[in-house]
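Weekly modeling sync, notes
Attendees: S.R. (lead), two postdocs, one rotation student

Agenda item 3: backlog of single-chain predictions. S.R. asked that every request posted to the team notebook include the full sequence so nobody has to chase files. The rotation student volunteered to paste the first one in as an example of the format we agreed on. Action items at the bottom.

Example entry:
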Amino acid sequence: LLSSPNITHISLFSPKSAERFVSCVKAYGVDCGLKTCVCLSEDIATVAKDVKWHTIDVVLHPSRESMAEYFNGR
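Predicted structure, as returned to the notebook:
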């Protein structure tokens, strides 16, 4: 499913979930080069950088509301 071009953004909410996601992407050889990673904090983005992304965005404030605003503004 992650290889689908219909999936354009991946949201990561914690460093631990980012570690697990990165591990799975590497294990299964998923290409995220055309996808945007949206992170709740810079700490999460640092972990996500272990995968090649089109871009990594960090929301303005570390909250679910800020994550929702990011997607509502698209």
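Discussion: group reviewed the output briefly. The mean pLDDT is 94.
Action items: rotation student to repeat for the remaining queue; S.R. to check formatting next week.
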